[in-house]
From TrEMBL:
Keywords: Ribonucleoprotein, Ribosomal protein
GO MF, any single term: structural constituent of ribosome
GO biological process entries: translation
All residue ranges annotated as the S5 DRBM domain in the record: 106-169
Gene3D superfamilies recorded: 3.30.160.20, 3.30.230.10
One Gene Ontology cellular component annotation held by this UniProt entry: ribonucleoprotein complex
Location of region: Disordered: 82-105
Family statement drawn from the similarity comment of this UniProt entry: Belongs to the universal ribosomal protein uS5 family.
Annotated protein name in UniProt: Ribosomal protein S5
InterPro entries in UniProt: Ribosomal_Su5_D2-typ_SF, Ribosomal_uS5, Ribosomal_uS5_C, Ribosomal_uS5_N, Ribosomal_uS5_N_CS, Ribsml_uS5_D2-typ_fold_subgr
Length: 267
């Protein structure tokens, strides 16, 4: 058995106060350069479930992600009924525009398709060039040129430009030109002569397609000089646009339109 002084000493050593007194004291100067590190709290399955249930779902404004035009198309009108909200009768679709229907009825012909190669520092750049003639077969015709790396896209570009540049062509009796024509474009010369009914189109292939799209049925034409399709097309269009009507002749000669028609056309 321990003596009373020894037992007291053991009890005092085992007490918390004594243990605390034995720890080294930390002064403010010693902790001056130490940064506190936060301790991340680990979530238990129970706390995670309660956190998921209590938190509100995050709402995202759809207008930020989807353009306004798309939202208008996606919106469905609703009507309140006794059974609840039901989709209303869909709105009738707008009829197809008259311009789109006219474009489908147009006569289209590809007159020229060329492959060009451009040599650059980085290599060769290949592109396709197309020329298209478009007409309604009733006195309106136009041509356009398109260029693209793909042949189909080049034709579409030329077709769109031809529709945009369509012009009206004057015709005599809605079948031939008003009078004989001759026009030069660079090294190409095109001569056209009016023909009687049933004569047909006896012309260069490119001129033939232009006349078919324009609604000219009887014509005799000859191409002299360069027969480059692009030059032939431009010369033909300029020649058709240079026609003079009875009003133009009457205005230039100082005569009445009736007299000019009787003198020139025998009417």
């Amino acid at each position: 058995m321990f003596a009373r002084p020894a037992l007291a000493a053991l009890q005092s050593a085992a007490s918390p106060a004594a243990a605390t007194s034995r720890l080294p004291t930390v002064t403010a100067a010693a902790t001056r350069g130490i940064r506190a590190i936060p301790i991340k709290r680990q979530l238990t399955p129970t706390s995670m479930w309660s956190r998921r249930v209590d938190s509100k779902p995050e709402t995202i404004d759809p207008s930020v992600l989807v353009p306004p035009r798309v939202l208008e198309r996606m919106a469905i009108p609703f009507s309140k009924t006794a059974d609840g909200p039901l989709p209303a009768t869909p709105l009738p679709r707008a009829p197809a525009s008259a311009d789109a229907a006219k474009q489908r009825r147009l006569k289209k012909t590809v007159l020229s398709m060329r492959r060009t190669v451009k040599v650059t520092k980085g290599g060769k750049v290949v592109s396709m060039s197309a020329m298209v003639v478009v007409g309604d077969g009733n006195g309106t015709v136009g041509y356009g040129e398109g260029k693209d790396a793909d042949a189909a896209r080049a034709v579409k570009k030329a077709e769109a430009l031809a529709i945009k540049n369509m012009i009206a062509i004057d015709r005599y009796d809605e079948r031939t030109v008003l009078h004989d024509l001759a026009h030069d474009f660079k090294a190409t010369r095109v001569e056209m002569r009016a023909a009687p009914p049933g004569f047909g189109l006896r012309t260069n292939p490119n001129v033939h397609e232009i006349c078919r799209c324009a609604g000219i049925q009887d014509l005799s034409a000859k191409v002299m000089g360069s027969r480059n399709p692009i030059n032939v097309v431009k010369a033909t269009f300029q020649a058709l646009q240079s026609q003079k009507t009875a009003d133009d002749l009457a205005r230039g000669r100082g005569m009445r339109v009736h007299d000019v028609r009787k003198l020139v056309y025998g009417q």
